[in-house]
């Protein structure tokens, strides 16, 4: 399997990045937080996980090895496929996932699109003994120009299935949390998702 991809970023879309490797453009499905760290024309190294289905081969790209490990682990729980696994790491940091499972925090897990109460309970039951303790590390997002974060968070929310109007309200709700110098898009996206789940 393909463990990682290194090459120039040829293009970035709402849900994926195309990385050129040896003259071939590989499309990697990524979370909005990971996409926010990539720049077209710049070199990037992304850990990857390949999901093989009868009718498709899909390559998922991650900000770091920890995200990849959580993505692969949560799929071992019944009813969790790659799309839900990707939503989990888009909404929660790796440590956030570990904490939610270790403390049996159903409410936090149900903030993820595609996970209901029963699904969250099943994930906790099946992964509690295997997830490991929180490491205390925070997911590092690359600094992003102050004006750009709004657009990236908005696009990320729309990419996760929210309508544009709700996404706009959520962006406004977290605007006061944006650090003027170097806003962390990943953290702002998670905060916006939390505000949507309360609404």
Layout of helices and strands:
Layout: E1 4-12, E2 16-21, E3 24-29, H1 32-36, E4 43-53, E5 56-61, H2 65-74, H3 82-91, H4 94-102, H5 106-109, H6 117-127, H7 148-159, H8 164-174, H9 185-198
Parallel strand pairs: 3-5
Antiparallel strand pairs: 1-2, 1-4, 2-3, 4-5
Please tell me about this protein's structure:
The structure is a single chain. The chain has helices at residues 32-36, 65-74, 82-91, 94-102, 106-109, 117-127, 148-159, 164-174, 185-198; strands at residues 4-12, 16-21, 24-29, 43-53, 56-61. By secondary structure, it is an alpha+beta fold. It folds into three domains: 4-61, Nucleic acid-binding proteins (OB fold (Dihydrolipoamide Acetyltransferase, E2P)), CATH 2.40.50.140; 65-127, DNA polymerase, domain 1 (Orthogonal Bundle); 148-198, Helicase, Ruva Protein, domain 3 (Orthogonal Bundle), CATH 1.10.8. Strands 1-2-3-5-4 form a five-stranded mixed beta barrel. It is globular and about 45 Å long. The model is unreliable at 138-146 (pLDDT under 50). Residues 145-199 are annotated as: Domain III.
List keywords for this structure.
single chain; 199 residues; alpha+beta; globular; DNA polymerase, domain 1
């Amino acid at each position: 399997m393909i463990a990682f991809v290194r090459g120039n970023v040829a293009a970035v879309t709402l849900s994926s990045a195309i990385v050129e490797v040896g003259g071939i453009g590989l499309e990697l499905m990524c979370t909005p937080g990971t996409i926010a760290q990539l720049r077209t024309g710049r070199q990037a190294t992304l850990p990857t996980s390949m999901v093989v289905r009868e009718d498709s081969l899909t390559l998922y790209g991650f900000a770091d090895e920890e995200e990849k490990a959580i993505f692969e682990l949560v799929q071992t729980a019944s009813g969790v496929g790659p799309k839900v696994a990707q939503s989990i790491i888009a909404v929660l940091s790796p440590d956030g996932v570990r904490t939610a499972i270790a403390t049996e925090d159903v409410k936090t897990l149900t903030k993820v699109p595609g996970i209901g109460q029963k699904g969250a309970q099943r994930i906790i039951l099946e992964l509690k003994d295997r997830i490991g303790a929180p490491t205390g590390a925070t997911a590092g997002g690359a600094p992003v120009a102050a004006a750009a974060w709004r657009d990236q968070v908005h696009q990320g929310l729309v990419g996760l299935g929210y309508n544009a109007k709700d996404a706009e309200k959520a962006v406004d709700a977290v605007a006061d949390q944006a650090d003027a110098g170097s806003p962390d898009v990943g953290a702002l996206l998670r905060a916006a998702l939390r505000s949507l789940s309360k609404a």
